[in-house]
Amino acid sequence: MRRVLMGSLLSMLALGGCRNDGVAVVDPPAAPEALSASYYAGSVTVSWELGPSWDGEAFRVYSRRITDADFFFIAEVTSCIDGFCTYEDLNVTAGETYEYSVSAFSTASGLETEGDFTVEVFVPSPTPPPVPDGPLVIALDNSLFLTWGAASRGAADFSFYRVYQADGPDDFLLGETDSEGFVDLLAGNGITYSYFVTAVDTDGHESTGSAIASGTPRPDYHGEIVYSYFDVPTASGFRFEEDEATDPIRDGDDAASHFRFEADVDGTFWIVPLGATEVRDMGATTALKCGVGADATCVDVPVAPLSGYTAVAVQMFAGTSYVMKAMGDDGLTHYGVIRVEHLGADQNGDLMIFDWAYQLQAGSPDLIIVR
User: Fold this and answer.
1) DSSP secondary structure string for all residues of 149-218
2) What's the structural domain count of the chain?
3) Are residues 256 and 334 in the same domain?
4) Are residues 83 and 154 in the same domain?
5) Do both 211 and 315 map to the same domain?
6) What's the burial of 15, exposed, middle or buried (CB within 10 Å: 0-12/13-18/19+)?
7) Which of 4, 9, 271, 279 has its CA 20 to 30 A from that of 117?
8) pLDDT, tens only, 194-227
9) Sign (positive or negative) of CA dihedral 125, 128, 129, 131
């Protein structure tokens, strides 16, 4: 549909060259190329590329509903980046199909060259996914873990979640994730943070915010996160440490790790003993340790059993404690225990959050005097 619209003859004579018959010749501006348009989050973005002989001319964007007879001039674009130009049309109505055309316009000559193509875009109804249910905030050391229900996934066009920090009158977008979990690594110990979550569909329609949940990070060296070996192998291993200044999270292939965490595609989670480590599933517990004044229904593992361990992978469940026989720094057998607080995923992959304790005295099964 390309055509060139001529300006005044005087402009042509002033700017053009001359043929042998004395008539001036003015080269029209290079037409835009690779025109495209797409809808997202309430607007249509029109994009095109510069023609090979583009010489700084502006571009004019035209639009019409397909039910309209004529195109309407809607914008002039004077700047492009790296040979790529865009215009965002916010004046669109749900349920309508729009057609777009772009032309190059020379203010010097008055010539305007349309591109070869037009593009059509349908604007859907802005129906976002269901509001996420939750969230729940789990306090960690200098970070907070958020998790919520999967109700939003019931929408066929569900795409991802947005996590916001509720900070007075202004809400701050922390990040996006396609799983029902998110770790805020910017949270500091002793400060209370509040959050809410929204769901976004494939067309960019965002739900209203979930209920607000709050949490306060606390200094507790024994609250740990490990990731699945298949997602973040460098943070999938763990070693019981005697010194709290030593980071217990290790590479899942580190020969010094006592175990590593793995997750299958079917949603099962595993603790994999490494080296000489052996593990035993102790069943459901309510706490890592039931301290003084604990509720009468509190269940923990105060003493490590002397038998029943295995050196093969054991399936893991939240709310369950696992006792391990592991080789300590002294080359002798020590007992340790972990309690799984949460199994899920965040923006980096599948993860486990757990508490742990470690008996410094070699061979002692007593898990009350621990590090």
Assistant:
1) -SGGGGSTTEEEEEEEEEETTEEEEEEEESSSEEEETT--TT--EEEEEEEEETT--BPPP---EEE---
2) 3
3) yes
4) no
5) no
6) middle
7) 9
8) 999 999 999 999 999 999 999 888 766 677 999 9
9) negative
Phi, psi of 161 (to 5 degrees): -110, 155
Q: Is residue 128 part of a domain?
A: no
Maximal C-alpha separation, the chain: 108
370 is a domain residue: no
pTM (predicted TM-score)? 0.69
369 lies in some domain? no
- Which domain, by its residues, includes 85? 4-122
Final residue in a domain of this structure, among 173, 196, 215:
215
The answer to whether residues 31 and 48 belong to one domain is: yes
Beta bridge partners of 181: 147
Tokens of 332: 């002798």
Q: How far apart are CA 333 and CA 48, in angstroms?
A: 68
User: What separation, in Å, do the N-terminal and C-terminal C-alpha atoms of the chain show?
Assistant: 77
Query: Tokens for 22?
Result: 């004395």
Of 90, 84, 27, 73, residue with least CA distance to 50: 84
What are 218-260's pLDDT values in tens digits? 766 677 999 999 999 999 999 998 877 788 999 999 999 999 9
